[in-house]
Amino acid sequence: MSYTFVESGNDGYVTCASEDEVISREDDFLDLIAACGEYRTGKVLLRAEDLSDAFFDLKTKFAGALFQKLANYHIVCAVVMDIDAVESERFQELIREANKGNAYRFFADADTAGAWLGSLP
């Protein structure tokens, strides 16, 4: 996986650089964490297209594993996706609960997600 750093607010965040690669294995989590270390930030912005289909199927526990790994390293995450298109009631519940906290949140557009990340210390 390749990542890039985007300056925003107080510092910036890491995001996927390639549209051809997706986060599909737990080893990819470590690459993402390493990129945060390289760029000295604890913030990540991921787009729906950066994530494998397993992320959106809560039965796989892929999303939970990703968020837990990021939390273990004190990395906050913004996920950009078409929230209105989510059909799964369980995933909608995840979005509602996540958006109450500051560990990770879901956004409909990258500008709002980037602004939220930029507002964090």
Tell me what portion of residues adopts beta-strand conformation.
Answer: 15-25%
Order of helices and strands: EEHEHHEHEH
Main sheet attributes: strand count, strand direction, barrel closure: 5 strands, mixed
Radius of gyration: 13 Å
Could you list the spans in which at least 5 consecutive residues all have pLDDT below 50?
none
Number of helices: 5
- Overall shape: globular
Average pLDDT figure? 95
Strand order of the largest sheet: 1-2-3-4-5
Q: Give the fraction of residues assigned to helices.
A: 40-55%
Query: Quaternary status of these chains?
Result: single chain
Structural class estimated from helices and strands: alpha/beta
The N- to C-terminal Cα distance equals: 27 Å
The number of strands is 5
Walk me through what this model shows:
With 121 residues, the protein is an alpha/beta fold. The chain is 40% helix and 21% strand. The chain contains five helices and five strands; from the N terminus they run E-E-H-E-H-H-E-H-E-H. The chain has helices at residues 26-39, 53-56, 62-72, 89-98, 110-119, and strands at 3-8, 11-16, 43-47, 76-80, 104-107. The chain has a five-stranded mixed sheet, sandwiched between helices. Strand 4, helix 4 (89-98) and strand 5 form a beta-alpha-beta unit. It starts with a strand and ends with a helix. The mean pLDDT is 95.
